[in-house]
Amino acid sequence: xxxxxVAGNWKMNTTFQEGEALVKAIIAGKNETPDDVLLIVxxxxxHLCCLTEPLREAGIGVAAQNCASEEKGxxxxxxxAKMLASIGVEYCIIxxxxxxxxxxxxxxxxxxxxxxxxxxxxxxxFCVGEVLAEREAxxxxxxxxxxxxxxxxxxxxxxxxxxxxxxxxxxxxGTGKTAxxxxxxxxxxxxxxxxVGKFGGAANDTAILYGGSCKPSNAKELFAQPDVAGGLIGxxxxxxxxFIAIAKAG
Length: 250
Ligand code: PEP
Prior knowledge:
The chain is α/β, with parallel strands linked by helices. The chain has helices at residues 16-30, 45-57, 81-86, 97-102, 107-120, 132-136, 140-150, 157-160, 181-199, 216-223, 240-248, and strands at 4-9, 37-42, 61-64, 91-94, 123-128, 164-167, 208-211, 230-233. The protein has one domain (4-248): TIM Barrel, CATH 3.20.20.
C-alpha cells in the first residue's frame, strides 16, 4: 500500500519569519497525522536553506516550487535543481498552471526542468490540468493527455518511477470550486490509463495527487477515490490547522 501524500505549495506567500512560524506549527501538528500520510512542504526559495533541516528532521518532505531548465551558468536569477539538492531539498513542483500561464512555460521547457530535477536527484511533482473552457468543451482528457505526452511519456522508465503527478484543474485553483470526487476519480483513472499504456504495470504505483481548492471539508471524499493518492494544497497549506486537518483525511 502506497503512502498518501499531502503536499503544501505556499507559492509567493510568507516572509521568512512567517514561514518559520508556519513550519513550527506544522511540525507540532504532524504527530496528529496518520503514519501512512507523507507530508511535503514547498516554501519559497528564500526559506529553503533554513527550513529544510527542521522539516526533514521531523519527517516532513521538502519541495521547491520551481527550478531552472538549465544545469548552471549565466542565467541571472535562476536556481538550479543541483543547488536545491545540495541543501537537502527532495522534490520539485514543475508545470504548475501559474508557471505555464504567467511565465510561458511550454512542454519543451518543462521537460528540461523535469530532466534537470531527476538528474540532480530531486523527485518532480509534475502538474497537469485543463482550463475551464477546455473542461466545458469536454476536452479535458485530450489536454491532460497532451501535457503528459510532452513531458512524462518522454522519460525513461527509471526516471518515470521517481515522478509524482498532480492533476490540478485550473478552474479549481484558488477559486473555491473543487472538482467533485467523481470528476477527480474519472480523470485520475484516465491519467493512470495513459501512464500504464506507456510504462506498463509500474504506473499502478504512481502517486497521482489532486489539487484545486482542496480543504478539510472535502479532502476525505477526494482522497477516498481509488486513483487519488492525496493532494497538492495551495491556500489551505498556509494555515497549519487546515493543512494538518487535510493530512488527517489521508
Ligand atoms: C495549487 O495552486 O497548487 C492549489 C491547489 O491551490 P489551491 O489549493 O489554493 O486551489
